[in-house]
Structure formats: C-alpha cells, structure tokens
C-alpha cells in the first residue's frame, strides 16, 4: 500500500477565486486509480495546508465502471463507507472540525482486478445519502 500526498490533480474551490472563505461551497476532485497490483489507494491530507479550513461533510463517488465494491475509510474518525459495484453515490462523512482536518487521511480499497479509475469528490457541504445504479 502506497501513501501519496494528495494525488488529486484538482483542488477546486467554488467559486474559483483565491480568497475563498471556509464556509463557501468547495470540493476536492480526484481519481482513485486501482490496478491489479495496487488495490489500496491512500491519501494523506496532513501535508496539504489547503485542508486546514476544509470542513469535509460529504463525498460523491462514481463507481459505475467498477465491477467490484469500493471501501473508503476516513481517519481519524474510522468511518467506513462501502460503495457497491456499478453504482454512484452521495454519502455524508463524519469528520473533525475545520482546523483539525490536517490530520485527515482517506484509504480506498477495491478488488478491481484490473485498471479501474474511480472518480471521487470530497465536499464541504452536507449531502443526503443517495445511491443509484449507473
């Protein structure tokens, strides 16, 4: 299992101005890249100062092209979310208060069995749990 310092190419705060306030809607977009050799993807947000004011409250995950489930584990809360194969979902996330998020870590696991990219967005807005077949 490898740990990567924020492999997400886009840290998108909306609106996209440089002076985004902590209470404005924002997301962190990325792709979980599973291969036959790498079934775990670990994301350590502690090295990214932009996370200091990011109040993680929800996640969108597009597992529609994956024939296997994806399991997300959030630290330090230990919350585990499992997204079924061939589905998409909005799910709430339990996370520490802003400022404590620098300790946040996300581990994703899937028995994809081949190269599968799973788009994910971490959201700082509340979401209603919703799962659908894609």
What does the model show?
The protein is mostly beta strands. It has one domain: Jelly Rolls (Sandwich), CATH 2.60.120. The chain is 0% helix and 44% strand. The chain has no helices and eleven strands. The protein has strands spanning 3-4, 10-13, 26-34, 40-44, 58-62, 70-75, 79-83, 87-92, 105-109, 116-123, 130-133. The chain has a six-stranded antiparallel β-sheet with strand order 2-3-10-5-8-11, with no helix packed on it. A five-stranded mixed β-sheet has the order 1-4-9-6-7, with no helix packed on it. The protein is globular and about 35 Å long. Residues 1-20 have low confidence and may be disordered.
Compact overview of the structure:
0% of the residues lie in helices and 44% in strands. It is mostly beta strands and 134 residues long.
Question: Could you report the average pLDDT, rounded to the nearest whole number?
Answer: 77
Strand order of the largest sheet: 2-3-10-5-8-11
Shape: globular
User: How many DSSP helices?
Assistant: 0
Question: How far apart lie the N and C ends?
Answer: 29 Å
By CATH, the topology is Jelly Rolls
- Proper CATH architecture: Sandwich
Topology readout:
Layout: E1 3-4, E2 10-13, E3 26-34, E4 40-44, E5 58-62, E6 70-75, E7 79-83, E8 87-92, E9 105-109, E10 116-123, E11 130-133
Defining key terms:
134 residues; five-stranded mixed sheet; mainly beta
């Amino acid at each position: 299992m490898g740990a990567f310092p924020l492999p997400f190419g886009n840290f998108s705060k909306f609106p996209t101005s440089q002076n985004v306030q902590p209470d404005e809607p924002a997301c962190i977009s990325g792709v979980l890249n599973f291969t036959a050799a790498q079934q775990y993807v670990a994301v350590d947000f502690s090295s990214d100062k932009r996370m200091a004011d990011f109040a993680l409250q929800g996640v969108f995950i597009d597992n529609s092209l994956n024939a296997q489930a994806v399991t997300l584990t959030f630290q330090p809360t230990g919350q585990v979310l499992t997204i079924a194969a061939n589905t998409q979902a909005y799910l709430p996330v339990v996370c520490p208060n802003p400022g404590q998020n620098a300790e946040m870590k996300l581990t994703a696991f899937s028995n994809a069995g081949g190269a599968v990219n799973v788009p994910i967005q971490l959201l700082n807005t509340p979401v209603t749990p919703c799962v659908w077949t894609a």
